[in-house]
Design goal:
single chain, alpha/beta, TIM Barrel, three-stranded parallel β-sheet, 10 strands, globular, transferase, Thiazole_synthase_ThiG
Amino acid sequence: MTQSEAPLVVGGHTLASRLIVGTGRYDTMQQMRDSLDASGADCVTVAVRRERLYERGGQNILDFIDLDRYTLLPNTAGCYTAADAIRAAKLGREILRTLGNPGADWVKLEVLGDSKTLLPDPTETVTACRALADDGFQVLCYTSDCPVTAQRLKAAGAASVMPAGSPIGSGQGLLNPNNLQIILEYLKNDDPDYPVIIDAGVGTASDVAQAFELGGDAVLLNTAIAHARDPIQMARAMKHAAIAGRDAYLAGRIPKRLYGTASSPSEGVISTRPYGSEA
């Protein structure tokens, strides 16, 4: 097994794929099922809604997900207060316990602060994270690209911090890679195995590759696949981009230089003509 194939460990969960895929916004449940399959993911995230997990047409998402194949990651999407997010997380835990799915003990925490940008509320997110961690949850926290908030979430007990590349569903890619690098540096300092998952804003496969090349441990995405012209083909592209980006990070890119460096040896050539020399 190569280093790039080493499994990702988040809390008590071991994932073979470093791509985590959402289940919302597909045209049909059959399209969602086939896209999940093409992505190669073994963890999928589902939004908790009231008494069950369902999509806008009323179909139960769980009828289209192989629960023996996928670990479910419940999320608190649509919550705007810590209290609502905590309630949704506990509901998700009970649903997954009933199903016997190993995802019952973790949650992707989202506490939004603005309905237009869908950016998180940092104060409510930290409050909810601390409460859920104290209650035994392994909390994966969606947050902005603010390094200070990321450190506070880790200190509050987050099993993983999930900084956004750009606003949810925007497709803008990684708008501030410098901040993401700072977050990676801060959270992994003296704790190199701490998982940092890039979440939100992915538009295409190159964004996924870039996230891994920066050093992200995983990428979570949904809209970039669900709203692609061909979701199943895009899911395959995301799968390969994750592998390529991770391999590139582990291999180590060459440094960027101002001037060119010849790839062929200069010894033994017939003649040379340095720049600026006379004919």
